[in-house]
């Protein structure tokens, strides 16, 4: 048997639903409209927890899912606003938005490495088959 408690052992669990809700409420206050927080790691640091605890708690307690969404949305809005106003370096803001909020430079029109089984040919040439057109002039 390996070291540590058996899997699914909750004897050492310190998070109750009430404590989790309080943590989220404190984090949401820190990430309010007028705050300087742009990154969930900064909020976690100042609350004395690690940033992944928010994901863990939202999965553990369904009552925390909407609070998590609000926290992340506030941080995303803060980052965008602070970048737009020049309060933070543009490159740092862009990296944060891309890395933590799913922003991209453009819409992905690829198949994301999925195999395409059927290719449909659309003819926009007044009903003329493109393969029958003589392009030599």
What descriptive keywords fit this protein?
single chain; 137 residues; mainly alpha
Characterization of the model:
By secondary structure, the chain is mostly helical. 46% of the residues lie in helices and 0% in strands. The protein has helices at residues 17-30, 40-47, 53-60, 65-85, 90-101. Helix 1 runs parallel beside helix 4 (65-85), helix 3 packs antiparallel against helix 4 (65-85) and helix 4 (65-85) runs antiparallel to helix 5 (90-101). 15% of the residues are buried.
One letter per element, helices H and strands E, the order comes to HHHHH
As a percent range, the share of strand residues is under 5%
Largest sheet: none
Number of strands: 0
State the shape.
elongated
Average pLDDT reading: 83
- Which parts are unreliable, with pLDDT below 50 for 5 consecutive residues or more? none
- Report, as a whole number of angstroms, the end-to-end distance: 80 Å
The helicity comes to 40-55%
Number of helices, where a helix is a run of at least 4 consecutive DSSP H or I residues = 5
Helix/strand/pairing category: mainly alpha
The radius of gyration is 25 Å
Secondary-structure map with pairings?
Elements: H1 17-30, H2 40-47, H3 53-60, H4 65-85, H5 90-101
Helix pairs in contact: 1-4, 3-4, 4-5
């Amino acid at each position: 048997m390996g070291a540590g408690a058996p899997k699914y052992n909750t004897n050492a669990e310190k998070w109750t639903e009430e404590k989790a809700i309080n943590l989220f409420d404190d984090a949401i206050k820190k990430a309010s409209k007028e705050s300087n927080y742009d990154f969930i790691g900064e909020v976690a640091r100042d609350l004395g927890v690690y940033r992944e605890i928010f994901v863990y708690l939202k999965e553990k307690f369904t009552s925390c899912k909407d609070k998590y969404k609000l926290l992340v949305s506030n941080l995303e809005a803060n980052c965008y606003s602070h970048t737009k106003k020049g309060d933070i370096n543009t490159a740092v803001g862009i990296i944060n938005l891309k890395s933590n909020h799913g922003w991209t430079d453009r819409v992905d029109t690829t198949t994301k490495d999925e195999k395409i089984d059927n290719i449909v040919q659309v003819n926009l040439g007044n009903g003329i088959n493109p393969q029958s057109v003589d392009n030599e002039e």
